[in-house]
Amino acid sequence: MSPPPPNHPPQPPQEPRRPGPLGNFGAAASTGRGGATGAGQGSAQGAGRIGAAPVGTGQTSTQSMQAARRDRFTVGLVNDMSMALVMLRRVLEPTGKFQIIWSAADGRQAVEYCSARRPDLVLMDLEMPVMDGVEATRQIMQACPCSILIVTSSLDSRSDMIFQALDAGALDVVRTPRMDDEPGRAAFLMKVETMAFLLPPKVSSTPAVAPTPASTGITAPPGRPLPAGGTVIPAGLKQTGSLRLNLRRPTAPVHLPPPAGGAPQVYFGPPPLPGSSKDRMASRLVIIGASAGGPAALSVVLKRLPKDLPACVVVIQHISQEFSHGLADWLQRYSYMQVKIACETSVMRPGIVWVAGSDDHLVMTSPSTLGYTPEPRSSPYRPSVDAFMNSAARYWKGEILGIILTGMGRDGAVGLKGLRGLGYPTIAQDRSSSAVYGMPKAAADMGAAAEVLPLTDIPMRIHEFSGLAGGRGM
Predict the structure, then answer these.
(1) Active site residue 8
(2) Which of 4, 47, 189, 381 would you label with 171, given CA atoms 20 to 30 Å apart?
(3) What is the CA radius of gyration of the chain?
(4) Residue ranges of domains in the chain, CATH in brackets
């Protein structure tokens, strides 16, 4: 392809418009599974769950109405294999929900076509001539940000590229469907439909503000523009970049009496527990839940924690089992702490990051032991942040810090609220630094988060919770 003239990117080839209703699209929002990701994005049967969650309420009511009024969603396909492009069309077009507006044979074409005609969703291959999917994702997110779903046929050989692309701004990953694999096609279509339904309206073409490479050391996940007037924070909640702002303690704590006079109190610890103070101080647990955009956000947090952090860390990232080992390997590159996949009967120890690694739910089965359970089977989030937080509230005998990072859906909000009700400190990532402001928004709206913080401030809170002086391990 010849270079485009300055300031005039080439127009992508126009795809024919095909009539077709959206079907039962609007009804999906009222199924009661409310979140910003969908059962399709993370059902027990399915596709890669970096972003698994139920359909519905992650958007504002205005956004949901705007989404429901749209007839179809525009899609750009990026793949150097003509047969793969044909197959993707055969899966997507019969639904009547998607208009494929262009197809690119390599990453460079994808960047040019996105600049000329930005789609709602890009389905991006990884290994391509001229420019691969990782670099294409990076350039698209810098020049004309849009939602990118990585579609790959090989996991073993491309695991590293998958997480590089997620680090560069892609929201999720799914296996390339095959025409002879009906369950695989259904899982793929569910993932694409869910992501499309949850796309926010395009309110600005200006790239959103996110942590800079200089401050994080890696490419930051894409943020979302703030609405006019900034983020609305529920009553009783504080949002700040300062780590020293006094915060109201959790409402109606279970174990601690209210402070004298009912005055606000700085509170960053759990209720008193039986046993010595030394025992309690040695028993700290940090729970981090994330979904879409989570791998990049997790790398920002983990790289700022010291090797000898005197706390156990458990990560619940919405991701299918086939991608979980690759996630753990990738996070290990950014972490001073040892990163391990949690196994049945794993015994939690300080200084280790345990990553959920199954399509079942990671839970605590005793005060120090991890395990997996398929229950609740009805949960569209797999693995579920709520399930682990609820089990930790039951079994953990020491201090707990609950954190909800970027992600689609509502998973973690209920579990976080339960922790806050017991007097434990809780944090949700703020809107401006979130790739997808679904899970943290749900937590903030529910009053589950005692603090709403920028991503780069969260590691310091973990330091304080763990009893470390500020700056150690930074």
Answers:
(1) no
(2) 4
(3) 22
(4) 25-30+60-197 (3.40.50.2300), 238-250+270-465 (3.40.50.180)
Please pick, among 106, 411, 430, 445, the residue that the annotation labels catalytic: 411
Clarify whether 411 is annotated catalytic.
yes
Per the CB < 8 A criterion, the answer to whether 56 and 408 are in contact is: no
* Token reading at 69: 């009024």
Told to judge if 255 belongs to the known catalytic residues of this protein, a careful annotator would answer no
- What is the rounded CA–CA span in Å between residue 390 and residue 271? 17
Q: Give per-residue pLDDT as tens, 96-115.
A: 999 999 999 999 999 999 99
CA 364/CA 361 separation, integer angstroms: 10
Share of the chain above pLDDT 90, in %: 51
Amino acid at 299: S
Identify the active-site residue in 103, 318, 361, 432. Answer: 318
Taking residue 211's Cβ as centre, other Cβ atoms within 10 Å add up to 21
The number of residues making up the chain comes to 474
CA distance 407 to 51: 6
Selection from 368, 434, 360, 380 nearest residue 403 by Cα? 434
Q: CA neighbours within 13 Å on the CB side: how many for 79?
A: 21
The pair of three-digit structure tokens given for residue 454, joined into one six-digit string: 């920028």
User: Whole-model pTM?
Assistant: 0.67
Give the model confidence (pLDDT) of 344-391 as tens digits.
999 999 999 999 998 899 999 999 999 999 988 888 788 999 999 999
Could you report how far apart the first and last alpha carbons of the chain are, in Å?
Answer: 45
Q: Kind of pairing, strands 352-355 and 284-290?
A: unpaired
